[in-house]
Write a structure and sequence with these properties.
alpha/beta, Nucleotidyltransferase, domain 5, 12 strands
Length: 304
Amino acid sequence: MTAPVVGIDIGGTKTAAALVDRDGRVRARREAPTPARSGPEAVLDGAARLAAGLLAAAPGPVGVGTAGTVDPATGGIRYATDSLPGWAGTPVADALADRLDRPVRVTNDVNAAALGECWAGAGRDRTHVLLVAVGTGLGGAIVRGGRVEAGARGAAGEVGHLPAPGAGRLRCGCGRHGHLEAIASGSGLAAAYTLATGTRVTGRTVADRAAAGDAVARRVVDRAGGALGAALAGLVALLDPDAVLVAGGAAGALLPAASAAYAAELPAGWAGVPLRPAALGADAVLVGAARLAMDSHDLERTSE
């Protein structure tokens, strides 16, 4: 398959579609706010509109990276948070295939980002990669031999729900306390700063204040980064990847402390496994979704 492919990124805030070539380069891109509060049909309609203008240059399948846990067998949503109300149960693959008149492959957005980074980003020289995405929440994905390890329920790699020291008073997005996401995420930074100061701010504000010299914000960020780095070191021993990538809007703030904790905690047998920042930024999900579509097309042709 030599023609470009369309990749779609459906998030709680924005939806994007892109034309991606065989080298993983984004050739054209369209983006719009996600009409999340209008329900799943409006979200799907918006995604289809963005992709429609790109299809003439891309005759093959379409790939999608979306928020939520995706059933790998059906391309439907098994579980989703309130960032996309009513999204759980939505048959994304079938619904978009009907709208676009194309085969559609769907995966979780963090899985898509990991595929993109392993194809054209910071993991392109590696075979087995663990990626964590540090944004408002904390997600993870495992890629081995160029394929996402989905697990039995499509949720393998979800590192955010690991127990984490120091997070006992902080609430995870799943509703429980003491998880890694509750401390090492944008929402975790905001919650920890509020506990310490009584001031409600966003996670980005905490990161900015830490960079500007705010001592409380600095402690919050360093504690979050330390928890993340120590957890990643333990996961390296469990999963045996040959690289760990950190992506997401809060990654830059947490990486210095995470890198120090990772180096201190990494078992000697895995001393050569690097911890790297991801490289593709906002394009990672789009590029990975396109890769998913390309791979599905190649597999179909091989089986003919």
